[in-house]
Amino acid sequence: MRSRLRFHPDFGTAAIMAPPVRYCIPGERLCNLEEGSPGSGTYTRHGYIFSSLAGCLMKSSENGALPVVSVMRETESQLLPDVGAIVTCKVSSINSRFAKVHILYVGSTPLKNSFRGTIRKEDVRATEKDKVEIYKSFRPGDIVLAKVISLGDAQSNYLLTTAENELGVVVAHSESGVQISQLSWCLRRRGFMPQRGREPR
Amino acid sequence: MKPYGFLAVPRCDSALPAKIRGSRARALPDRALVNCQYSSATFSTGERKRRPHGDRKSCEMGLQLRQTFEAAILTQLHPRSQIDIYVQVLQADGGTYAACVNAATLAVLDAGIPMRDFVCACSAGFVDGTALADLSHVEEAAGGPQLALALLPASGQIALLEMDARLHEDHLERVLEAAAQAARDVHTLLDLVVRQHVREASILLGD
Q1: How far is A74 from chain B (nearest CA, A)?
Q2: A27, B155: Cβ pair inside 8 Å?
Q3: Are A53 and A91 in the same domain?
Q4: Does any domain span residue A80?
Q5: Are residues A97 and A139 both part of a single domain?
Q6: Do B112 and A73 touch (CB under 8 A)?
């Protein structure tokens, strides 16, 4: 048995006892189909369960049903943004027709490698789509909450939209570097210095 | 896009890095498309090569690698996506196909792409009534029959078997067995190394 001290942000430091870990490689026979049911990272052949990834063997014992045998890699598998997912992204460049962003988070999970996304002019807001000016809506460096509408074409740029109430720019910095909050579609107020007045975005 | 799996293999005979990239180019509706590209550096052989990639040998090698890995990777789990495997030979001294396959297996493993089994490969030949395994460049250039075998060791299935030049069928069994035994030895070594790597990586990540 191996014990390890772990820090959990909500519960503080605690000692977690871990059972001995078994590592497996692709092609290794794990068990019979009668002893477990295949989970992720495994495949079945001739009545046996084999591993298809190099990682740790996990057996989750469920009540009544057969335990699910799965192989987990030490690093989590890449979470891909799916259509309809809410993503957090950072604007990298802007154009008169669209804004290019780097997708950093899917939901609340950070991504190891950022993906590229595009917010087209007509997807910025739901009303008055033709009067949108990208220069007034986004600036490079803004953090934006957006929703995926398409996986994109062969150039692998996700298509995103901010045309909903909860979506849009959430964090932005003004020219002097002060954090600003949103007043309307294209006006912002600088956060901590209200006496400076409003600045057009 | 940055590559997901990367492996640089220094080998006394042939040294080559292999890269895996995942992309979302939707190709086949029910499974992943495996795309392999082989290129050899201009300084890899005795005489400097003019065209590192795009020539006939590179295309053929890429095709063979693709056939090998389509047999091993569980492509049904990733429909409408493409798995690119790029292999570059830095130093060629015989057995380049086998070295490519072994390196690419480890790269695919590192990238976390589910595979049926390791793919271990080795070349073999037949000289003076003796079956030789893992031919060097000099032995290959001597002109005898050469066999390239890619094996899935756990099940004993053959992913690719290729031979040029003529060999009497009486000798085929011996040559094949020599290549298969060498491939199994490679598997034993890779097995050890991968398990150690997984153990070290999971200790580092504290999981």
Answers
A1: 5
A2: yes
A3: no
A4: no
A5: yes
A6: yes
C-beta of residue A143 within 8 angstroms of C-beta of residue A171: yes
Q: What is the CATH number of the domain that holds B90?
A: 3.30.230.70
**Closest alpha carbon within chain B to A17:** B207
Give the residue on B whose Cα is nearest the Cα of A19: B207
pLDDT digits (tens, 9 = 90+) for A3-43: 444 455 554 444 455 566 788 899 999 888 888 888 888 99
CB contact under 8 A, B24 and A28: no
Q: Which of A151, A148, A193, A191 is nearest to A172 (CA)?
A: A191
Within this chain, do residues A68 and A89 fall inside the same structural domain, yes or no?
Answer: no
Containing structural domain, residue A177: 85-189
Contact A179/B at CB under 8 A: no
Per the DSSP assignment, residues forming a β-bridge with A168 are A145
Q: Are residues A40 and A125 in the same domain?
A: no
Predicted complex: ipTM over 0.95: no
pLDDT tens-digit map of A61-87: 877 778 888 888 866 556 677 888 899
- CATH number for A29: 2.40.50.100
Alpha carbon B207 to its chain centroid, in Å, reads 31
Domain that holds residue B16: 6-205
Contact B157, B116 (CB under 8 A): no
Contact: A54, B109; criterion CB under 8 Å: yes
Closest by Cβ to A26, choosing from B23, B25, B117: B117
- What does DSSP say about strands A109-120 and A55-60: parallel, antiparallel, or unpaired? unpaired
d(CA A37, CA A19): 21
Count interface pairs A-B at CB distance under 8 A. 77
